[in-house]
Amino acid sequence: MGSADGTTADEPDGGSRKTRDTAVSERRFRFLVAGYAVSSYGTFLNMVALNLFVYETTGRALAMGLFMAVRLASGFVAGLVVGGLLARFSAKSIMLWANVGQGAVMLVLILAPESLVTGALMAVSMVIGACGTLFMVALRSSIPEMVGEDRRAWANSLSITGRSLAMVAGFASAGVVVSLVGYTAAFLLDMATFVICAVTVALLPIAGGKGAGTDAGKPGKAEKSGPRWRPVAFLALAAAPGLGLMVALRGVDAFGSSSHNAALPIYSTSLDASNPAVFVSAFWCVWALGNIGAQQVIQRYTQRTGKTVGALGFGYGTVVMSAAFIAAFAGFPLAVTALIALIAGAADGLTEVAYTSHLQTLPATLRGHAFGLSATFENLGFGVGMILVAAALDRFSPLAVVGWSHGAAIVVAVVFLLRVAA
Length: 422
Prior knowledge:
- By secondary structure, this protein is mainly α.
- It has helices spanning 2-58, 61-88, 91-111, 117-147, 152-203, 221-224, 229-237, 243-271, 277-305, 310-327, 334-359, 364-392, 398-421.
- The chain has two domains: 22-205, Growth Hormone, Chain: A; 225-422, MFS general substrate transporter like domains (Growth Hormone, Chain: A), CATH 1.20.1250.20.
- Helix content is 85%, strand content 0%.
């Protein structure tokens, strides 16, 4: 009798304690996303400001290409090593020092004498490319420990929403900031965003990393044999059916993304040569609205059903997104193109949540390696795409180039869907 009464009395306490813990973890994660959104604003701001500064400093478009190549290459390398770093260090320390590194290198650029500016720019490109990948992988791979397995989709949607808002703000304000206050002030603002994110990370008790899920962070068997990152990374791809093809599709999708990023300014110039930035800005703003809208729908869906969109959502979303980006260059009226951009943004948001949530189902010991290898594939796809697309746009129309680039993603997505459905 007393035992039964005790159990009954404890159950509400246990339930209320779990509710309180969930509320606390969600509040902390919102705080982290706020800091992440601020640093993302800095990232998108410097994408524009640094490219303009590189071109103004060197007077050569080739220098901008080299700057981007160094950035992508450093992100590629960081993706290879981040899984091993997460096995040895906490996610919090990696996220903290990634922001400190980006802020510090911006300070180096600000203080660099004129004779060393070119070298400082290359250092900025290298550090920002590497640290951006390190932060992103540490964040995404640690979300299940931060908020719980059942809140993964909600957390992913929230972080993507923050980044989408930051992207719009960064791209929209970059030209205004540079023209009104100059490059030095823009770089100081950029540095401040990384400092804010670093302080946010430092103040929070962030779980994950350091061999999460293993005995005191000891390396697993796969890590002990052969080169450090390769066995565990490829073991991660074999851990779930179709995961290797899913990561490959993500790389091909990045290849397709390079085409519309490169072709959009050219297409915009053909529409309005006197003010091409208007169409580009409007397109990305509408795209972001679609992305943010999709996140709200996904959050409500997961709260109501307790389900995630899954691997099929990633495959179908990739098909819709790629088809929408192709249609965006087909010369439709502006109102129709705006609707297409909205659909592309929504599908892009769906694919990112589905993909990230699926990789987060891996064991903690494999998750960091899988996200690192994924980042490597994405940087490789985007980097190779930028080279091939730049050459192709000299000879072919934007529609043709975007068509075959995103067409490749559609083909691989169909193969992936058939594989998952089999």
